[in-house]
Amino acid sequence: MLKIKNLAAGLFLLLFSLPTLQxxxxxxxxxxxxxxxxxxxxxxILLIDISGDKSTMPACATTGRFAIDSSSPAFKDVVAxxxxxxxxxxxxxDINATSSCTxxxxxxxxxxxxxxxxxx
Length: 120
Fold this sequence. Notes:
Distance between the termini: 20 Å
Strand content: 35-45%
Keywords: Signal
Strand order of the largest sheet: 1-5-6-4-3-2
Helix content: 25-40%
Number of helices: 2
Number of strands: 6
Number of domains: 1
Signal peptide: 1-23
CATH class: Mainly Beta
């Protein structure tokens, strides 16, 4: 459990020390209902699906999923945290997303994930 908390804290610090050019959108108190890692164009892409309302997603996100690719400095940490939250059935997951779909053409890019009751 301590490793998960340390991973979450490190990921939090890393993700919010990176500059972002796009406005952030938050999806709060969700459950990850699906996750997969795919290879495309020499990168790994993590795709996730969450519970709840997704009506605020950009038009490019036609599948209602989120994506992050291995060019992100936090990719491996994000994969670990997502898979842990999915395996545990965690119901208090927050996603920090941009308004773009560059990692996967039909999925909204996400730049951060928080699990549990820790504030952003």
